């Protein structure tokens, strides 16, 4: 029996192909939702869009300081695992839910599989970096998306026999949903946007949005790109970012903001954008899968493959640099860069990562 632990927007999206694969193979599985994300547009909207059943358990831990949140998830997951005794627990990514889920399972001597293992920003001030390092080190199966993540794990002394290069399930999710999204979503019409004629922006990293100066620089940078190139900007605002912008008194004026949108609408927004500006991990991957240029609002990335393939550049949280990099990317893509690329050219796999992951767990 497989237990899938998830708790935030990207985990629901990236675990959805794993859940589908368990169903396709008729494998006994159940889902624990930590409740780290709980607002409709950060949680239930994705179960609806992805046509997933409600989780078997919801721990409803909600928001809080990382210690409190992690502890509540650890204790809640442990209780369920003791009762259900699964053979394997799967966690995905780098959130507090991942850290707690992996820790609960490993202390009960239940096999742990870490989906999206081996990513490293080499910046331990990021809570996500600590979560990744701990989860990888206590996992029995490290499902590395790329050769680079595989090498990071080897360099940390993780046993080669525990590491499997599977690709990233984000590709499976895009392949499974892009066509459905194009058929179903009317988001461009609803928001009055024209294909390839708008910028798509998101930001939510703690180190960016919890810092007044950095958040101001990011919002100013997005406005500057929009003004300079006369391209409207759309910004679905993460609840953390909304809270901090309100607290700091920073205005989004000049940018078209919305609440976070569902996955199908988001895929349409992203695949038709002229340029993506983001500090999200998933967006860096998706823009490179869908062939859309991306400017990352960070100084480093744990996804160097996106930069190496030419679809992503790092601009930090500096308005002038954001503007400069955006200009360079717009020019490069207007000259035809990426025109010959197709969905299958991306560095994150062939859309069959979940099949490999589930097969390895069952072997
Ligand atoms: C978390 C992850 C981050 C991931 C992101 C995905 C950690 C340390 N961080 O960051 O790695 O990229 O999820 O989006 O695990 N809030 C709501 N409704 C919600 C969820 C959050 O209003 O459904 C607000 C609350 O004010 C909360 C704040 O957002 O305090 C931050 O939420 P939290 O889950 O702590 O971190 P994220 O920034 O979402
Ligand atoms: N996403 C979405 N709606 C939004 C913003 C993002 O569906 O309004 C999706 C996006 O397609 C990607 C994922 O959410 O798959 C990224 O989540 P997030 O940026 O919150 O987290 P990260 O990837 O940085 O951990």
TrEMBL record:
The keyword Hydrolase does not apply. GO terms for molecular function: UDP-N-acetylglucosamine 2-epimerase activity. It comes from the Archaea. Keywords: Isomerase. CDD domains: GTB_UDP-GlcNAc_2-Epimerase. InterPro entries: UDP_GlcNAc_Epimerase_2_dom (IPR003331), WecB-like (IPR029767). Residues 22-360 form the UDP-N-acetylglucosamine 2-epimerase domain. Its EC number is 5.1.3.14. NCBIfam families: wecB. PANTHER family: UDP-N-ACETYLGLUCOSAMINE 2-EPIMERASE (PTHR43174:SF1). This is UDP-N-acetylglucosamine 2-epimerase (Non-hydrolyzing). It comes from Methanomicrobium antiquum. The gene is wecB.
């Amino acid at each position: 029996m497989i237990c899938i632990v998830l708790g935030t927007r990207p985990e629901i999206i990236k675990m959805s192909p794993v859940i589908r694969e368990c169903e396709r193979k008729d494998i006994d599985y159940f889902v624990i939702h930590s409740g780290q994300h709980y607002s409709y547009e950060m949680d239930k909207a994705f179960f609806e869009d992805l046509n997933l059943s409600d989780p078997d358990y919801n721990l409803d831990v909600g928001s809080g300081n990382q210690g409190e949140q992690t502890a509540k998830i650890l204790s809640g997951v442990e209780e369920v695992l003791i009762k259900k005794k699964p053979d394997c627990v799967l966690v995905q990514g780098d959130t507090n839910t991942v850290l707690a889920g992996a820790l609960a399972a490993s202390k009960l001597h239940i096999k742990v599989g870490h989906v999206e293992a081996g990513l490293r920003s080499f910046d331990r001030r990021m809570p996500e970096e600590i979560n990744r390092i701990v989860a990888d080190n206590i996992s029995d199966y490290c499902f590395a998306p790329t050769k680079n993540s595989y090498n990071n794990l080897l360099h940390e002394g993780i046993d080669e026999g525990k590491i499997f290069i599977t690709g990233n399930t984000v590709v499976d999710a895009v392949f499974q949903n892009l066509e459905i999204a194009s058929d179903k979503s009317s988001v461009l019409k609803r928001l009055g946007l024209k294909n390839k004629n708008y910028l798509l922006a998101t930001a939510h990293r703690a180190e960016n949005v919890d810092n007044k100066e950095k958040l101001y620089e990011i919002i100013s940078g997005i406005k500057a790109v929009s003004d300079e190139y006369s391209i409207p900007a759309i910004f679905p605002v993460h609840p953390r970012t909304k809270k901090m912008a309100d607290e700091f008194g920073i205005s989004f004026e000049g940018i078209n903001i919305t609440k976070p949108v569902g996955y199908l609408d988001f895929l349409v927004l992203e695949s038709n954008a002229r340029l993506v500006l983001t500090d999200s991990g998933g967006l860096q991957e998706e823009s490179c899968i869908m062939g859309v240029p991306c400017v990352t609002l960070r100084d480093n990335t744990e996804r160097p493959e996106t930069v190496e393939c030419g679809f992503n550049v790092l601009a930090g949280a500096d308005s002038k640099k954001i503007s400069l990099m955006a200009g360079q990317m717009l020019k490069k893509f207007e000259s035809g860069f990426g025109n010959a690329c197709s969905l299958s050219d991306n560095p994150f796999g062939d859309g069959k990562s979940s099949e490999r992951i589930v097969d390895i767990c069952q072997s």
